[in-house]
Automatic annotation (TrEMBL):
Keywords: Dioxygenase, Iron, Metal-binding, Oxidoreductase. It comes from Paraburkholderia diazotrophica. The keyword Iron applies. Coiled coil: none annotated. One of its GO terms (biological process) is catechol-containing compound metabolic process. This is Hydroxyquinol 1,2-dioxygenase. The lineage of its organism: Bacteria, Pseudomonadati, Pseudomonadota, Betaproteobacteria, Burkholderiales. PROSITE patterns: INTRADIOL_DIOXYGENAS.
Length: 293
């Protein structure tokens, strides 16, 4: 293999994969090289630009640790996370749509009983959340596990606040089960819009291309029930000014709901609230898993 030039380099690299025994890996690597080279030709990438890109990816790596995943933020802000998620989670139109997972999920979040207060002291206006989990045929799904997590009124998740000893206290996050008819409710706080972490290379990239780092206010849900595909989604707050420009492209109109504002009073579960409060009612429809359909 000699005298390779700019016209023959792509085929030479692809040919170098010919002994790869993993067929899928060979397919992926071949396509990656084709697109990477086509991109470099398309923009006539300069050496200076190539080096800047290497430096950028190096910075993305350096800021990444077990708490901060800048590569996922990069994928999110370039729409790759939403594309990969969408093409792997196609559902019948009557099912609740999925959206990005995001970096703030915590496995094994605190367990609550249906109806309890998951805020655990998080800052924000009181909010009563209720709904039902059903299957695509309209059937109630009993005992679904509902994982919920959200930001506080300052736009931060619990995992972004450490106490003096450097520990996280879980707030506005929890796991609970719906009842035998699929109904669930919990007390929490009002979700607010927040900027994704933008003090690193991804934030600099956003600023350089004239984009803001904000996500519209939302509640995250992961809903699991035997016989159904796990649903990972958000419910977005109607009226939020960032609904049309979510930095991670995650908004679906079917996921936008009204958070109703109420004067001080009593919530449907008897919760007496002496300040203005909000309520959200949203039902989730799960797709039967293939084995179950
Ligand atoms: C989130 O909604 O938690 C999120 C999603 C993508 C990037 C950053 C945050
Ligand atoms: Fe979020």
């Amino acid at each position: 293999m000699r005298n390779i030039n700019e016209d023959t380099i792509t085929q030479a690299v692809i040919a170098s994969f010919s002994d790869c025994r993993d067929g899928r890996l060979r397919t992926v690597m071949t396509s990656l090289v084709q697109h990477l080279h086509a991109f470099a030709r398309d923009v006539h990438l300069t050496e200076d630009e190539w080096f800047k890109a290497i430096r950028f990816l190096t910075e993305v790596g350096h800021i990444t640790d077990d708490k901060r995943q800048e590569f996922i933020l990069l994928s999110d802000t370039l729409g790759l996370s939403m594309l990969v998620m969408s093409q792997n989670n196609r559902k019948p139109s009557n099912c609740t749509e999925a959206t990005v997972f995001g970096p703030f999920y915590v496995e094994g979040a605190p367990l609550y009983n249906n109806g309890e207060d998951i805020s655990n002291g998080a800052k924000g206006a009181p909010c009563y959340v209720s709904g039902q989990v059903r299957g695509a045929g309209g059937e109630a799904i009993p005992d679904a596990q509902i994982d919920v997590w959200q930001s506080d009124e300052d736009g931060f998740y619990d995992v972004q606040h450490l106490d003096e000893a450097g520990n996280v206290i879980h707030r506005a996050r929890g796991r609970l089960k719906g009842d035998a008819e699929g109904f669930f409710n919990f007390r929490s706080i009002l979700a607010e819009a927040y900027p994704i972490p933008h003090d690193g290379p991804v934030g600099r990239m956003l600023a350089a291309v004239g984009r803001h780092p904000w996500r519209p206010a939302h509640l995250h849900f992961m809903i699991e029930a035997p016989g159904y595909e796990t649903l990972i989604t958000h419910v977005f707050r109607d009226g939020d000014k960032y609904l049309e420009s979510d930095v991670v492209f995650g908004v679906r109109s079917t996921l936008i709901a009204e958070w109703k504002r109420h004067e001080p009073g009593v919530a449907p579960d008897g919760w007496e609230i002496d300040v203005p409060w909000y309520s959200l009612e949203y039902d989730f429809v799960l797709n039967p898993s293939e084995a179950h359909a």
